[in-house]
Every structure is written in C-alpha cells, then in structure tokens.
Amino acid sequence: MLELAILGLLCETPMHGYELRKELTTKLGAFRAAISYGTLYPTLRRLRLAGLISELADDDSAAGAPPLTSRRGRVVYKITAEGKERLTALLACTGPETYDDEGFGVHFAFFARTDRATRLRILEGRRRRIEERREGLRDVLGRAAERLDTYTLALQRHGLDACEREVRWLEELIAHERSGLPQPTDHTPPGDSRSGRQP
C-alpha cells in the first residue's frame, strides 16, 4: 500500500524524501499514522532498484516539476514510465486487500485516479467487510454483555457505533457512484477530526 501511495504522489510531482513523507501524512492522515523514515526510505530504495522511480539531484529537477524546497544537494525522487504502468495496475486492483483498513485508506485517497466501476467494487467490498465486523460486535454484545466489565463493554459499544457510522458513510458514497452524479465535497471518513464530527 505504501508503494501505491508513493507512486501516486510522485506521479503528480517529483519530491524529496522529506516532502514525500509530509505529503503522505497529509494524504493518508485520516486513515493511518504518520509514516516513519525507517519505513519510507527502504521502500524508496526498493522502488528505485525495481526501476519504478529514479533519483536526480536537486538542481537537476527543473526539467520536471519544481521541488517544494530550494535546498541544493538533496535527492529528488521521480516516477518513471515503468512506475506509471505499475501505478495504473495497482489502482485497478479490487481484491480483498483493498477492503482492509490500511488498503482501503490508500486506495480511497487516490479514488480521483480510478474509474467508477473500480471505485464501486472497492466501496462495496469495504461495506461488506465493515458489516461483518459490525455483526461480530453485535454478537459479542448480545451473548456476553453481562460478563464484560464496564470498560470492555464501553469499548465494544464504541466499536459498534464506529462500524454503523462507517456503513452509513459507505452507503452514501455507493449511492452517489451508482447515480453517476459527482460526489459530494465532504468525503471525510466518519470520526475524522477534520470533519468537526466526534468519533
């Protein structure tokens, strides 16, 4: 999933590692914790060795999009033609990995680059996954609520509430995709602090 996120951002503009980490945090902040350099740089090295991205000196980057900072001597990462092909293939994926928490978040962050049919399959798969989680929590609360301590019970109910909110959010998105109309401007996931709503 980090590979998809890096290629998606570098497809927009070349970036330094610091800039890339900042943009990844901004883009995926609603879905996952901040990405560490210990995770980012090994992935960048792997992508470079695979020919999916290339490195160029800061002062050589003017041929592409200008970097976000003017400090000289730093490495700028740029997507290659092979990287763009790989990005297209990753964005077209609709398998179970795209329904999981991390996978869904990354794919959703790049929905603007995917076609409607792909978006719909991922949204419907995610809804099924969350509905399964919701039913599991309902089952636990129905069978064992009286045996749970106050805090565990509160945690289970919080999880159930979160699932129910996400299912409603997904159903709204799915309805818009099926209608063929533009999506509403507020795509904020349930519980995201940027929406002003409480989790």
Automatic annotation (TrEMBL):
Sequence ranges assigned to domain Transcription regulator PadR N-terminal in this UniProt record: 6-88
Matches recorded under Pfam families: PadR
Sequence segments annotated as region (Disordered): 178-199
Family matches, as InterPro entries: Metal_resp_DNA-bind_regulator (IPR052509), Tscrpt_reg_PadR_N (IPR005149), WH-like_DNA-bd_sf (IPR036388), WH_DNA-bd_sf (IPR036390)
Protein name: PadR family transcriptional regulator
Domain of life of the source: Bacteria
